[in-house]
Write a structure and sequence with these properties.
Elements lengths: L22 H10 L1 H20 L18 H18 L14 H20 L4 H11 L10 E4 H4 L12 E7 L7 H14 L5 E7 L4 H4 L7 H13 L40
Parallel strand pairs: 2-3
Antiparallel strand pairs: 1-2
Helix pairs in contact: 3-4
Length: about 280
Amino acid sequence: MPERVPRYRPVAEHLPAVYQSDADSWAQVRGYLALVDALNRSALASLEDLPLWLSPDARALHPPGLRESASADEVYERYLALADELADWFGFTFPETWTVPGDREEELDRKLEFCRRAARFWRRRGTPRGFYAFLCYWFELDAKVERPVLVEHFAVRPNAAGPEEGARQITLFVPRGPAFAKYERRRELIRFVDRYAPAHLVMRVCWINPAQLADVYPAPTDTVAVKRAKLRAMLDTVGDFTPEADGIHLELSPFPDRPLDRLGHGTLPGTSEHES
């Protein structure tokens, strides 16, 4: 494969000139060393391919060490293993929700795309905007109606003196649209916030109806004061704590004579006083 290693010099040419004094002997020596040349060329070609293989653009290269007749599944397994290795360099493990059993190509595209963006994600990690960008990428939130709204309290309450309204507090408004219609996805988002929210911030998650986003997203023509007023009004509708009287008490029901569905998922069976 001389075209793969254009600057390769055969091993025989590194020998002293005395070996070339006899044409027949020289031809025999070159023949003996031809196998070494073939092995060397193959090794050097692999080294030249290494930067490409160990990159998110590895799909341009057939996996090294895998036979050309390998099946498509075998090839994708090698590509996916490489994506796992590249992600591990960033201390990241792909979540189970990124696995697409029915479409290995889509799964591979997404994982390699993360590897391309990982350096930027990690460089901005620890900032609210970096957290938000990673969240939208993780959950594939492209449409505006599905995207959560991240409100930094100090930005809408610049004159607040209380520590509860200071720069450390952030509210994430998440629309319960198609992206988070399933309970598992909502749990996944909560785990994401627990894992990746900036450590110096106090972040709370509030689920809202998609229609409410019209009140949160400021119009392009709104002034800064109007934008702040809209966001501040949204914050004012959210309580920081649930009063004890409104909480769920498993040991004693405040409504012993009638079950109460507090979570919108039905009541427990039976008619005992612990039924709420």
